[in-house]
């Protein structure tokens, strides 16, 4: 008799466990509970790799190991086509110096919270995704930086999963009367190499690492592109 009772109690317990998990899965399918695994992994990554809670402009001045590159030379500014072609070329060459097609990266972008503005993370990125299902793997949250609220979106993927050339062109065009445009603060983080790439606009971009030894070869190879105004600080940050 006692054995029958214990078996019955065990069945009830297992039934409750199964019912609990079935309920949780129902909530997840409805979107009432979200497990932000990507966001948690990203926060752990930038803190462990760069001792940062959030990324923010100007990234070069907020980082201990960094290079600031000039993309468009002011001497070419009178000819917009030549100027922008130089911007596109340099930004893409430097990106390829850091990222290989199979490299895993985080794409992170911030949009300032303004009244009436909706969260549209998939609307921003979908035109740049080769793998459309990736839009369902976004992390999204509201963050506070220097007293201002921003929407922050994080996507983890491979470089080959995104149309990076088009995306870099769109970032470069943000202050120009040229389409396409991507008017967001956007960062690319190489997970294995622990390098951050941030083009702030057509004028230039910052490259950050957690070790000067990683950036020294890049600095020597593209020394002529380094921003002259910050050259002394760049070399201090690299220990040169």
Secondary structure elements and their pairing?
Blueprint: H1 2-30, H2 37-50, E1 66-70, H3 80-98, E2 104-112, H4 121-125, E3 139-145, E4 148-158, H5 164-172, E5 185-190, E6 195-201, E7 204-209, H6 212-221, H7 231-238
Structure description:
With 240 residues, this protein is α+β, with helices and mostly antiparallel strands. The protein has one domain. The chain is 39% helix and 21% strand. It has helices spanning 2-30, 37-50, 80-98, 121-125, 164-172, 212-221, 231-238, and strands at 66-70, 104-112, 139-145, 148-158, 185-190, 195-201, 204-209. Strand 5 and strand 6 form a beta hairpin. Helix 3 crosses helix 5. The longest helix is centred in the N-terminal third of the chain and has 29 residues, at 2-30. The model is unreliable at 2-9 and 17-34 (pLDDT under 50).
Any key phrases for this structure?
240 residues, 7 helices, globular, 21% strand, single chain, 39% helix, alpha+beta, disordered N terminus, seven-stranded antiparallel sheet
The major β-sheet equals: 7 strands, antiparallel
Q: Which shape, going by the Cα principal axes?
A: globular
Rg over CA atoms, rounded to whole Å, is 23 Å
Whole-number mean pLDDT = 84
How would you classify the helix and strand content by structural class? alpha+beta
- Which stretches of 5+ consecutive residues score pLDDT under 50? 2-9, 17-34
| Distance between the first and last residues' Cα | 82 Å
Sequence of secondary-structure elements: HHEHEHEEHEEEHH
DSSP strand tally? 7
Total separate domains: 1
Percent range for β-strand residues: 15-25%
Oligomer class: single chain
Note the total helix count. 7
Major beta sheet, strand line-up: 1-7-6-5-2-4-3
**Level of helix content?**
25-40%
């Amino acid at each position: 008799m006692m054995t029958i009772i214990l078996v019955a109690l065990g069945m009830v317990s297992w039934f409750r466990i199964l019912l609990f998990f079935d309920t949780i899965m129902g909530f997840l399918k409805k979107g009432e509970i979200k497990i932000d695994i990507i966001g948690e992994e990203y926060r752990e990554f930038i803190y462990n790799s760069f001792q940062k809670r959030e990324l923010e402009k100007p990234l070069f001045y907020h980082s201990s190991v960094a290079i600031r590159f000039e993309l468009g030379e002011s001497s070419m500014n009178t000819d917009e086509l030549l100027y922008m072609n130089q911007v596109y070329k340099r930004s893409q060459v430097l990106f390829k110096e850091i990222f290989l097609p199979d490299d895993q990266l985080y794409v992170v972008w911030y949009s300032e919270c303004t009244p009436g503005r909706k969260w549209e993370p998939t609307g921003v990125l979908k035109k740049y995704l080769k793998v459309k299902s990736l839009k369902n793997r976004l992390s999204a949250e509201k963050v506070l930086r220097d007293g201002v609220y921003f929407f922050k979106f994080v996507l983890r993927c491979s470089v080959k999963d995104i149309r990076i050339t088009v995306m870099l062109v769109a970032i470069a065009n943000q202050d120009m009367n040229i389409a396409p445009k991507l008017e967001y603060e956007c960062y690319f983080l190489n997970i294995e190499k622990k390098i951050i790439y941030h083009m702030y606009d057509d004028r230039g971009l910052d490259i950050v690492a957690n070790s000067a030894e990683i950036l020294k070869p890049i600095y020597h190879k593209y020394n002529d592109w380094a921003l002259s105004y910050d050259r002394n600080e760049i070399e201090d940050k690299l220990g040169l």
